[in-house]
Design a protein that fits this description.
The protein is built from 5 helices and 7 strands. By secondary structure, it is an alpha+beta fold. It has a domain of 95 residues: OB fold (Dihydrolipoamide Acetyltransferase, E2P). Strands 3-4-5-7-6 form a 5-stranded mixed beta barrel. A hairpin with an 8-residue loop joins strand 1 and strand 2. The radius of gyration is 31 Å and the shape is extended. The chain starts with 17 loop residues before the first helix and ends in a 6-residue tail after the last helix. GO terms for molecular function: 3'-5'-RNA exonuclease activity; metal ion binding; poly(U) RNA binding.
């Protein structure tokens, strides 16, 4: 219910420089700490004390604090179902550190969807001229599939599956979206095509048309 203003200043404060703003913030933080301490005493909280070195609250046992002062935490115990296809559309580029061993083995894949992490892909999966002329492929869309993500790595590991074409064109963009959502857009099999009428051109018979509602 309380609204805490960490700092409030106008154009006139700019004339006093950064030191004035720093002093204002320090004073507000001290006031905030004092207000929090008074609220804790009013609520009957025990096990709370202050030190001269630190003007903030010290709590010996978090269980003594009211619920509104606690932040709930949790840990993922098990993954029931993997919803994402692990495939993403994006661009490839060389690593920034040219002197590292990783630069000689991998490239960086940057997905268009920022919810998907960046991925290390082997240079062997990249086009042969990518290392020599990386700018040629700066606007080329690729499909990458994530295969692993180690706990001690900031980036996932994956494999380049396919080159789609230039970004911004309808066909590459559409194919990338369908692949990401695991939509099968391959050609129909001969078994499926045999179910269709073979004598063309085909028209609806008058008897069948009489049983249907005409929405044309």
């Amino acid at each position: 219910p309380d609204v805490i203003i960490e700092a409030q200043f106008d154009d006139n404060d700019a004339e006093h420089g950064q030191n004035h703003l720093q002093d204002t913030l320090t004073d507000d933080i001290k006031k905030l700490s004092l207000d929090t301490g008074e609220k804790g005493k009013a609520a009957g909280v025990t096990g709370v004390h202050r030190t001269k070195q630190d003007d903030g609250l010290k709590v010996n046992d978090p269980r003594l604090l009211p619920d509104e002062f606690l932040q709930r935490t949790a840990k993922v115990a098990y993954i029931l179902e993997k919803k994402h296809s692990r495939a993403a559309t994006g661009f490839i580029k060389l690593l920034a550190d040219r002197n590292s061993e990783l630069f000689k083995r991998c490239a960086m894949f940057s997905p268009v969807d920022h919810r998907v992490p960046r991925v290390y892909v082997p240079l062997a999966d990249c086009p042969p001229e990518f290392v020599i002329k990386p700018e040629t492929y700066s606007q080329m869309l690729f499909i990458c599939r994530i295969v692993d993500w180690k706990e001690d790595s900031n980036f996932a590991s994956g494999q380049l599956c396919k080159s789609l074409g230039q970004a911004g064109e309808i066909e590459p963009e559409s194919e990338g979206i369908l692949t990401e959502y695991s939509v099968d857009f391959s050609d129909f099999s001969p078994e499926v095509l045999e179910c269709l009428p073979q004598n063309l051109p085909w028209v609806i018979s008058p008897g069948e048309l009489a049983k249907r509602r005409d929405l044309r």
